[in-house]
Amino acid sequence: MFGMTRAAMAAAFTPAFAGVELREVYLDLPGHGDSPTDCPAASQAVLDAVCAWLDRHVGAPVLLAGASYGAYLAAGIARQRPEIVRGLLLVSPGVKMSRGSRDLPELEPPAAPTGWLDGAPAELRPHLDAALGHRTSTVVATVLAALESGGPGDEKFQEELRGGPDFALPDEDADIVFGGPVTVITGRQDRIVGYADQFRSMRHYPRGAFTVVDAAGHYLPFEQPALMRSLTQDWLHRTRS
Asked: Model's pTM, two decimal places?
């Protein structure tokens, strides 16, 4: 997820992979966590850095899993370097990097207990209000712990990347098919990236499965961990067939 670290992603994905013999590798993107800012502030440069790491350290096609911005990059890698990708797990994936072009749900937020956001810093409350579909103080605490985990990152680089002209990949709208097993998991109440653009993207995945989860938003792995695990295990089973 944009701005988050490998420690946060391990917290999100490791429970879903429990009981499966896999080598799990979590990366800090350039300018995130403990990774240096050693590339231009452009999504293509970030994608190229991930591919370079894979080329150096992995000798076979890999299963790629990502959430939000990480899922956006994973889908981009499958378009540009399909020979190194065996399957995709895309959770709350970004599809359109321009906020104005995203198809977001127009609905009232789900009911929430009084004071459910009291434990969050004031500056994060609007974001969490828009992002969360499972709206409880427990979920908020879990998400905050993830946001605060890992290395410090480079906020200047992240702001330049997110606000710059090269946040979208140059082939974002390319009509390219990826034939490996794909699972796309979205939250019904995700008002950050939505779920409609993600469903339309399924035309690119002939072996794709799509799920939209009620009472879930942009931080779906922390909001609905049991469903996340079930859908992930199904994807892993399909990658072996």
From this structure: 0.96
